[in-house]
Specification:
Blueprint: H1 5-15, H2 21-48, H3 53-73, H4 76-84, H5 91-106, H6 111-118, H7 123-146
Length: 147
């Protein structure tokens, strides 16, 4: 017995769970906003401590990376990501999580074959294509300003 396309479509709709779009967007907004707000507080803290704006920005980035890495190591970042979804992909914290997660998962295989090989499993392509894109954009910018 074969199914018609309409019958197959109805079966598929029954099998696929309904998306919780409003809940997912709300969680991403709240968590992403909380991460950015925390980053702003950290930046303001460093500025109040007397650091120049470039130094405070660097210290803020390092702090966000460190906090994200520690939270990933303790498994807290994953719980936050379950609630916040895409909101945890705020570039700097999401990148730190993407580097630490594979390192944690494969540390039992040793420092070279586990940690060393797998640490950039997720973040490696981002680094490669980010550097490549910046090079291409730089060449285009240079050529356009040359004339």
């Amino acid at each position: 017995m074969s199914l018609s396309s309409d019958e197959y479509k109805k079966m598929g709709e029954k099998a696929v769970p309904k998306t919780k779009c409003l809940r997912n967007m709300s969680g991403a907004f709240l968590i992403g906003g909380a991460i950015c707000t925390f980053g702003q507080f950290v930046l303001n803290f460093y500025l109040d401590m007397g650091l120049s704006t470039p130094s405070a920005s660097t210290a803020c980035s390092v702090t966000l990376i460190g906090v994200s890495a520690v939270l990933t190591g303790f498994g807290v970042y994953d719980k936050i990501a379950k609630f916040g979804g895409g909101g945890t992909l705020v570039p700097i914290t999401g990148f730190a999580n993407a580097v630490v997660s594979p390192a944690m998962e494969f540390k039992s295989e040793g420092f070279v074959l586990g940690l060393g090989v797998k640490i950039f499993t997720i973040a490696g392509p981002v680094i490669v294509y980010g550097v490549l894109a910046s090079f291409v954009y730089g060449v285009i910018y240079w050529v356009l300003n040359w004339f």
